[in-house]
Amino acid sequence: MRLVMKFGGASVADGERIRHVATLVRSYREQGHEIAVVTSAMKGVTDALLMAARAASEKGDADAVLKSVSDIRTQHERAAEVCIEHEPTREHVLDSIATLLDDLERALVGICYLGELTPRSLDYISSFGERLAAPMLAGALQSIGVPSRSMDGMEAGILTDSTHGDARPLDITYERIAQRVAPLLEECVPVVGGFMGADERGVITTLGRGGSDLTASLVGAGIGAHEIWLWKETDGIMTTDPHLVPEARSLRQISYAEAMEMSYFGAKVLHPRAIEPAIRHSIPVRVKNTFHPEREGTLIVADHVPSKSVVKAITVIRNVALITISGSGMIGTIGVAARVFSSLARAGVNIRMISQGSSEANISMVVDEAHAQRAVRTLREEFRHNIVKDVSLNEHVCVVAVVGAGMIGTPGVAGRVFSTMGRNGINVIMISQGSSQSNISFVIDERDARRAVAVLHEEFALHEIE
Ligand code: ASP
Ligand code: MG
C-alpha cells in the first residue's frame, strides 16, 4: 500500500521516541509499503517558539531570546545523539539544525530590535519546529538503513493563501505534491515537516495549531495514498475519554461525518479541516497507537458504518461558559439574533452552541471560557439601551455531546439520553441538536460531568461496541 504516516509532537518528544518512530516506519517499509512521513515539531517546541517571539517583541529581551534558542538547540542536539547512531549522518543533521537555528536566532534578535511582531514574522518563527524535526527524523531513518529525504512544507509543494497563522491551502497544492513528493516514494521515505506552507510570493505561512494533520491529508491526497495514518499515544478514537470511564473502548470504524462531530467540540480527536482533503479524495484515515502498532486502531471512512449501537461516542467539553440574554423586548423583535452574533463575531468570541426557545424571550449560547467576560461586556454594550434586559453568565458548566450517525432518523435516542440524566438526578441546563441529527449536545453543571458520561456510556452499552 501507499501510505502517509503522520507523527505528532508527543511521538517525536525525544531521541528515544524518534528512534522508535524510525523503527516503526522501517518495519512497515520492509512489509513492502511505500511510505511518506509527516512530522510535527518535537513536543513543546512550537509553544517555546511562540513564547520566544512574544518575549522578543514585547520585552525586547535579547538575553531571554538567546536562552530560548539555546534550549531548543540542546533539545535537538540531545535527541540527535540518541536517535542517529551513524556518525556521518548525525554530523550532517547537526549541521542542518545549526544552520536553521542560526536563522531563527537572527530573526528573533531582529524582532527584539524592531519591537514589532507581525503575523508574517510569527509564522516564520513558528515554522522552525517542524523544519528542525524533519531532518532529524530523516537522519534517524537513514541511520537504521532506510533511505530518506527531508523537506519542509514549502519544498513539498504546499501553497497557501496569505492568511498568516491560519493559512488555507490552494488546490494546486495537490498537483505540486504529486510532482515533488510522489516520485521519491520508490527510492526513499520522504519526511515532510508539517504545519508549514508558503504563499504565492514564497512567504512562509502556517496552517493553524495542530496543522500537521492537515499537512498529512494534503500529502496523502497529493501522492494518491491508500490510507493516511495518524499515529497517536492512544488506541485510535475511543467511545469516550478513558480517564473519565475506564471501560472506554476503541472504535474499529467510523465515518468521516462521525469523526467530524467528535472533533467538533474538543481539539482531542481530529480537526475537521484537517481531514477535509482526505474526505474530498475519499482516502481513509486511520488513527493508530505508537505504543501498540499491532492493534488496528480506528479507521475513518466515507460510508456510514452500521453498528448495533446508534450512539458511538460520548464526549465532554470543559472550559466553556454559558451566556443567556433575556428580556420581553426580544419577543417578536427582528434582528436581535443578528446583533448578538455579529457583535460577538467582531469581538472575536467563539460560539460553540446556540439555543433559542420559541417564546423568543431568551437566547443562550456556550462560548469558550477564555472569551466569556469579553462576550458579556460586548453584549451589555451592544444592548445598553433597550431590548435585552439581562445578560447572565455561568462559568461552572460543561457540554456533553452524544455522537453517532445511527441516530439519524432513529426515534427515541434523545429520550434515552435525557431520561438517563433524569434518573440520575442530573439537571440539564440547555440542549441542542442540529438537524444533521448525528450529535445531541447539552449543557450540565461541570460537577456532574464524570457521572453523566459514565451513565450514558453504560446506557448505550458502549463498553461492548464492536
Ligand atoms: N507544531 C504545531 C502545533 O503545535 C503543529 C502540529 O503539531 O500539528 O500546533
Ligand atoms: Mg467552565
TrEMBL record:
Reaction equation(s) it catalyzes: L-aspartate + ATP = 4-phospho-L-aspartate + ADP
UniProt GO MF annotations: aspartate kinase activity; ATP binding
Keyword terms, alphabetized: Amino-acid biosynthesis, ATP-binding, Kinase, Nucleotide-binding, Transferase
Domain of life: Archaea
One BP annotation, GO: homoserine biosynthetic process
Pfam families: AA_kinase, ACT_9
Catalytic activity, EC: 2.7.2.4
Domain ACT as annotated: residue spans: 325-396, 402-466
Pathway participation: Amino-acid biosynthesis; L-threonine biosynthesis; L-threonine from L-aspartate: step 1/5; Amino-acid biosynthesis; L-lysine biosynthesis via DAP pathway; (S)-tetrahydrodipicolinate from L-aspartate: step 1/4; Amino-acid biosynthesis; L-methionine biosynthesis via de novo pathway; L-homoserine from L-aspartate: step 1/3
Gene Ontology CC terms: cytosol
InterPro entries, per database record: AceGlu_kinase-like_sf, ACT-like_dom_sf, ACT_Aspartokinase, ACT_dom, Asp/Glu/Uridylate_kinase, Asp_kin_monofn, Asp_kinase
Annotated NCBIfam families: asp_kin_monofn, asp_kinases, PRK06291.1
Protein family according to the UniProt entry: Belongs to the aspartokinase family.
Record's protein name: Aspartokinase
Source organism per UniProt: Methermicoccus shengliensis
